[in-house]
Design goal:
Length: 272
Amino acid sequence: PDGDRILADCRVSGIQTDRLVQTGEAPTAYTDVMTVASTGRRPVFYNPGPNDLLEDGILDLQGSAARVLHLGYLGLLERLDRIGRDGLTGCARLLKAATGRGLITSTDLVSVDRSDLPEIVFPALPFLDLLFLNEFEAGRLLDRSLVGASGRVTMDAARDALLEIVSKGVRRAVILHFPEGAVAARPDGSVHTRGSVRFPGDEIAGTVGAGDAFASGVLYGIHEGWALPDCLELGVCTAAQSLRSETTSDAILPWKDSLEAGRAYGFQPLPA
């Protein structure tokens, strides 16, 4: 029934469903996110469902007219995260195949505390155009903290971390998102920043999905051929709009409206 509902929702939204496959081997994946009122912490309860059944051979890219393949999340895909005899994970092989077909490749990480995260992520980097991650995930990859004594991400630590990660093979940019804004590093050593929207605290209904909303805004700009700083701006504006709802997507506006609303509020300066 959940699969039927998703397919119906896609059709109503004009999303093609010919490449979606239903299976009776596992229930539809879901995530329950609980917000602890006293601390703001968000414990996550995840049922992987068919995500654990995905294998790179199942996903057929032939005939696709897409410009971008976005794969999420590395670290949560049991079979695709396995390292094969070739030293590559299934994710890396899928991204390599997409690269060979001329797609822009992108992936996101998830904040799981697993010691083998570098072994899962690093083999995929040479086949990635874009890597999204937050400060916790960057810290797990490099085994160091990006957070200073103030409890916030420091710009020096962020720049150093992103430049180190991008040097491992990412082709376009490694993009860090965190509550105060976003930082992106490119292989040529250039770094771009954008502070988050000055969004009124009393209008925040929930923060779940803000990172994904940010990525969706950036990816729209990438899809349309925008410059990276403009992509970051749309990303933080889309993330701000997502804060208006307890759900992950109900408050998301068309991109022009999100951009206008964010600019109207203004952007906060990033911490030193």
